[in-house]
Amino acid sequence: MAMSYLFTAPTSCFARPRKSLRDLSSRLGSQSFLEWELLGKAACEKRGGGQIGKNSLTVFCQQGVVSVARKDEAVSQSFDGSTAQLNIVMKFGGSSVASAERMREVADLILSFPNECPIIVLSAMGKTTNKLLLAGEKAVGCGISHVSEMDELSFVKELHLKTVDELAVDRLIVSGLLDELEQLLKGIAMMKELTLRTKDYLVSFGECMSTRIFAAYLNKIGAKARQYDAFDIGFITTDDFTNADILEATYPAVAKRLHGDWIRDPAIPVVTGFLGKGWKSCAVTTLGRGGSDLTATTIGKALGLREIQVWKDVDGVLTCDPNIHPKAEPVPHLTFDEAAELAYFGAQVLHPQSMRPAREGDVPVRVKNSYNRQAPGTLITRSRDMSKALLTSIVLKQNITLLDIVSTRMLGQYGFLAKVFSIFEDLGISVDSVATSEVSISLTLDPSKIWSRELIQQELDHVVEELEKISVVNLLQGRSIISLIGNVQRSSLILERAFNVLRKNGVNVQMISQGASKVNISLVVNDSEAKQAVAALHEAFFEDGFNAEIQSDDGRHRTAPACFPTIDPLNSHCPTLGSYLRVPSLSLPPRRSAFGR
């Protein structure tokens, strides 16, 4: 039985939310206002993030936001007695809707599936987001009188007005937003300041315009559509501007709005990707670059849909970046864990957090090419046959900072790691990979999440300053993480092959990390050697018949590898593992999951 959602409000409103709660009580005819207030407070104060059921109702709470849900037979009924219900999400990236011609092709693609009832999620057109960010940065120093003359603003205006003209839809659809955009840039110029909150509001214009244009075009060609701004239909987020997290209250709110509108008046929903609304500030927030993928998977989970389709400009998830190695090929099947690791460690096909809702809702994700709709793409599900799987893909994350932290205080002590990571938490810096030994910690940071080069250096200097109070610190910039994604329960086979290849190519591995996920081994190398290493590894694992060779050897006893560390390294002609690694020990702690914060 499906869920119908009736009430969502921040607990800060619980002081006097009389109208909403009384309305809820009268609709349900059972609980009093006081009972609902107590249930909401209990959910947050005693069971924060959990659930409390009362009769057929449930109260959810996450970070102070309360949602009340009721089981409802009507939700599972078909529209007009038929089986026509919303059943898939189709998400299209910026390159897929970069022009009027591309929008026509996407509309044709959607209508080529007459038996589907899709929800459409769109990114901004082409380079719009980058142009808006650049316009905001320029506005800070250009003066109000020069805002109208900025090339970036002219580009955005011309692109969207040209598109509506070519699609023969009304200019009024976007002209008001374009005027508002110009006024916002003048406000930035007047204040000489671009805050993160303002930056999120600024970039939201891209998605708001692309979805309005596309919905208008669908209506023009006879496919009834309805446009939605995500921040107005229940996408409730934290107030972490530029990189907000979706709160649990989003799912009931989105399900109620989209399903309710579909039942009353069926029309293809066209939803802005990437955007949300802060639960405290009620301001527009963004989900980080590529956040439209997360919008799509959130909708898929909220409505319990059959499939989430992410349409890109490549034939699915590839075995490596085709810009690094031209022989990269599509991967037919991945697990949610593998896809999350791929996204987190550098694959640009999916947003790093987008797999979390799909995994929680057990909704399959299919990555396809909008330029090549016949290609099968990549299917991502909870599980797959791993018995004969080895490597799935190789991904590269460049411009990483490596930190070596050495302290004898670690010996036989507890709490040292907590002190180290509290420093990163206080500074809001994410740690990618970790390896430890008795007296040292090696870890990698991704400073690209800090907005400017000046801030990057300031934050890194601050990190070193704080860490030097408890340890000796060596900071190494210009490093890359090469991640080997696949069935790393067979890590001996993977490492044997990988280190032989890297040795032959003169590549020195400076750190290794294998987490508890069992789908990823990460190697840290110099930036200057990274692309060469990825190309060589791809050739060794995917082009030399290695996977087929391993599969044919399944069930047989394998002798010690010819050129990998043996039990007696002193009598071996092979280099020991220690000669490849700077980390003193391979006793690695589980690395945090890509699904968590």
TrEMBL record:
- What CDD domains does the record tag this protein with? AAK_AK-LysC-like (cd04244), ACT_AK1-AT_1 (cd04933)
Q: What is its EC number?
A: 2.7.2.4
Localization of this protein: Plastid, Chloroplast
Reactions catalysed, as given in the entry: L-aspartate + ATP = 4-phospho-L-aspartate + ADP
Q: Give the GO cellular component terms, alphabetically.
A: chloroplast stroma; cytosol
Per the UniProt record, one Pfam family is ACT_9
Answer yes or no on keyword Thylakoid.
no
Q: What molecular function does GO assign, one term?
A: ATP binding
- Primary localization: plastid
The family note in this entry says: Belongs to the aspartokinase family.
Q: What does this protein do?
A: Involved in the first step of essential amino acids lysine, threonine, methionine and isoleucine synthesis via the aspartate-family pathway.
Indicate what this protein is called per its UniProt record: aspartate kinase
